[in-house]
Amino acid sequence: MKTINNKNSMLGGLLGLLGVIVLVSVIGFYAAKPEPLILQGEVEANEYRVSGKIPGRVKEILVEEGMLVKRGDTLAIIDSPELLAKLDQAVAARSAAEAQNRKAIKGARQEQIMGAYEMWQKAEVGVEITKKSYDRVQKLFDKEVIPAQKRDEAEAQYRAAVATAKAAKSQYDMAFNGAEKEDKEAALALVSRANGAVNEVESYLGETYIISPSSGEVTEIFPNRGDLVGTGAPLMGITDMSDMWFTFSVREDLLKEMNTGTIVKIKIPALGDKTYEAKITFMKAMASYATWRSTKVGGQFDAKTFEVKAKPAEAISGLRPGMSAIIETVLK
Question: What is the pLDDT of residues 153-199, one digit of tens each?
Fold first, then answer.
């Protein structure tokens, strides 16, 4: 009876030892089994920073955060009194240039032309009189009636009258013909310059209306109504919700099954357990500060990290930038 009990005790001990061995083996198996690698990334989209070319005060904001807008929609209006003042100055300068140009084209007034003509005719009469006087004095000088000095004085008066007549004729021609070609061209250039100044200011006035560069969702509005904004200051952000993709940071030793064109199965926790297909469209080594490096223990090597982008195969309802994305399967 005692022998049977001893055998039962030994059998129970062996079974217990065997159970412990099995339990330790199972625990060791699961402990040694590597954890599944999770490649996590996020959803990204094209974002546009909307800014203005001119400084001023925000007069009106026509949109709200979360609102969908189309390309070309007016988002805000900037008030710039200084620009309006510059426009008034440019318009006044253009009016003055146009008046100067009209004057150059029209030439002298009719009264000025007639006055110049009368002065020319008067000078011609003087030439005629001094010519007769000079001829008489010359005849008397030839007969040795008068000295040479008298003849020289008469000749000088005649020549002076001729010069005066020529000058009067030039003044008449100038009044009759109007401004010179060069003067007309200079006046026309002033008009063109003034028009350019007006067009420049008007183009800046068009920049007081802040226009959306793309269709999308208004994600940020920085200033409030009445705030002063400077040149190039960002006013709001527009996110193009029709163009989204997934971005992952992957160590190079995990890229053996990935390449441009590879299809991957992606899970988006925010959208439930459903998986979606996406195609890898871009792969690039990231900067050194973003590189994962091993400790070189056991023959390992320094591994760079690559930026991997994947585009959804089709539009995903409810997808938004910033959502987490996990690669679950890499397909060939």
Answer: 777 887 887 888 787 777 766 655 654 555 656 666 777 777 777 78
Residue 86 vs residue 4, higher pLDDT: 86
Task: Rank 113-127, 131-145, 254-268 by mean pLDDT and report only the highest.
Answer: 254-268
Query: Position of tokens 């009469």?
Result: 125
The identity of residue 231, as a single letter, is T
Q: What is the DSSP string of 186-213?
A: HHHHHHHHHHHHHHHHHHHHHTTEEE-S
Looking at the structure, do residues 113 and 180 belong to the same domain, yes or no?
Answer: yes
Question: How many separate domains does the chain show?
Answer: 3
Most trustworthy range by pLDDT among 28-42, 79-93, 311-325: 311-325
Q: For residue 327, what is the domain's CATH number?
A: 2.40.30.170
Q: What is the DSSP letter of 70?
A: -
Per-chain mean pLDDT for the chain:
78
Whether residues 102 and 71 share a domain: the answer is: no
274 found inside a domain: yes
CA distances from 142 to 65, 145, 150, 154, 155 (A): 111, 8, 12, 14, 14
Q: Which amino acid is at 61?
A: I
CA 247 to chain centre: 28
Whether pTM exceeds 0.70: no
Mean pLDDT of 42-66: 91
* Domain enclosing residue 96, as ranges: 87-203
User: What are the strands, taking DSSP E only, across the chain?
Assistant: 39-51, 56-61, 68-69, 74-79, 209-211, 216-221, 228-229, 234-251, 263-267, 275-285, 305-312, 324-331
Q: Beta strand 234-251 with 305-312: parallel, antiparallel or unpaired?
A: antiparallel
Alpha-carbon span 171 to 198, nearest angstrom: 38
